[in-house]
Amino acid sequence: MPLSAPNLDDRRFQQFVDDAKRYIQRRCPEWTDHNVSDPGVTLIEAVAHMVDQLVYRLNRVPDKNHVAFLDLLGITLLPPAAARTDVTFWLSAPQEEDVVLPAGVEIATRRTEHEDAVVFATERDLRVVPCELAAVAVQPEGGTTADHTADVRGGQDFACFSAAPRPGDVLALGLSAAVPSCAVMIRLDSRVDGVGVDPRQPPLRWEAWTGEGWRECEVASDGTGGLNRSGEVVLHVPDGHVMSRLGAQEAGWLRCRVTEPLPGQPFYSVSPTIRQAEAATVGGTTGAVHAETIRDEALGEAAGVPGERFRTEHAPVAAGDPSLVLESSEGGGWREWAAVEHFAASGPADRHFRLDAATGEISFGPAVRTPDGGLRQYGAVPDKGAVLRARRYRTGGGRAGNVARGGLSVLRTSVPYVTQVENREAARGGVDAETLEEAKRRTPVALRAQDRAVTARDYEELARRAAPDTARIRCLPVDEAGTGAVRVLVVPQAVPDPGGRLRFEQLVPGDDLLRRVTRYLDDRRPIGIRLAVGPPFYQGVTVVATVHAFAAAEGEAVRRAALDALYAHLDPLTGGSDGRGWRFGRPLQAGEVFAVLQRVPGVELVDEVRLHAADPLTGKRGDASDRIDLDASALVFSYDHKVRVLGGAS
Q1: What is the CATH number of domain 133-284?
Q2: All structural domains of the chain with their residue ranges
Q3: What is the pLDDT of residue 282?
Q4: Count of CB atoms within 10 A of residue 29's CB?
Q5: Distances from the Cα of 116 to the Cαs of 411, 497, 643, in angstroms?
Q6: pTM, two decimal places
């Protein structure tokens, strides 16, 4: 059982005043006016206020000692982490010259009456490269490439794919320049010939050629209905797009490829045709971070002694890889130092330093006396007179940066030809700095683990240390078969879209996050233990319910409130009965859904509840049931709930 830190004095202001008045009654009975208007009582309250402040400072002594003990154990407060997202800058019109957006361009959320603006800054330069259509080709599946550039320039109709389209048929569009990280608008003059497809979900995939192969382009909008009518297609070209040769033409190639239809998805019966085509660059995308980047900050001049300490001007230092780049002047140039968690493995020549990110303190290795009377230097010491500088670090961060999709819409830095900015995905990764109370709870676990992963709790704690920007971590114990396999499930942070709905792709951890956790745990697992790090299985659930509303309640408002309640309860991050996220492996029963809906304001009676297991990728729904069981590695995911409201005001 953990020991609780005592209050050395638990009295407060009013208790001091009451004690003084009781003392007056015993020692000075002729003083009978104890109202607040009495000058003597006013003096008592003034003294009580000062004593209350002294008691507050006295009770901070245990916290101060606790911090000193944590520092002695080498445990420091974890720094905040900065949220990141990609932001797209839209041009007012296509330009003839490159539009360069330098690193540090600021974008922000809209400031409201109750909330300040959340400011992001771009991390690197963005070059929006102009382009035009240079070549057009058609490549049937298994056939040869046919050049149709002359047909497009002459306004002659040609088929985009085979006469009877097949998966793998390609329409290739060559741009005059490579446009990595740019948004490209393709204007097509098409006819309604590609009958059979659903224009809202055509079996097409747009791709761009990079040095490593074809990569998918995100489709911002498709006004052609699957190449079936005249309109514009706006594509976000991935980073890495390069010039390449297709047939005899070198260009920045994009292609529209026919894909295998999904179950129930209509397919082309006849190839669509194109008469004319144009292309232009209309925007660009780059990464942005919710932190201020500090560059080339002078820290001071080294004295050349062991254990020397310096501080950054701005604190806390946001987490990063690396968090801070430290350099020292040497021989007319700069030498870089590496950050380490401790100096135990540092030799006298190792250019290592420690960073306390919470305070911004930089410390160099100490010299420790050995039993024979000599000194052992742990880590190198900067030369006397050497100038130290922080070449780059970030300050800021926190959960406030986890803004929803579309939240960044204000351009705070004036950029020529740019009229609009947006984040197409929610920002995530923002974590507040660790508090002292949180560090107290973490310390016993960290001491038991000793930086080694043995138990399931060790794996979870170390994984959180490697990736504090995750929402949930779950380690499944070593299997009973004795194969020595450990599975760590990672659930990333996700910010709901406006309306409180999570999309399935938001719950899939990125490759960088999985690699970071895997690399950290791999160095700390026992030899012979196989490690698998990945996402949990998300069991899609569709609730179909019928409720009766009170006569005075508005039916549509009740329906929206009921849907909100279902999505909130079945949220894998913040749902469940305790609001801390759905428990791994916990089954879902119709009875609890009845209870959730019955608590919705305006609901008089819950008539019927049916549960359907659903595939969140294909949308396929299973048979109705009263209970959905989940595996130990599974979480629920709300998928397209349906609520029917009877009665109520129209």
Answers
A1: 2.60.120
A2: 13-59, 133-284, 296-396, 450-534, 537-649
A3: 96
A4: 8
A5: 15, 20, 37
A6: 0.75
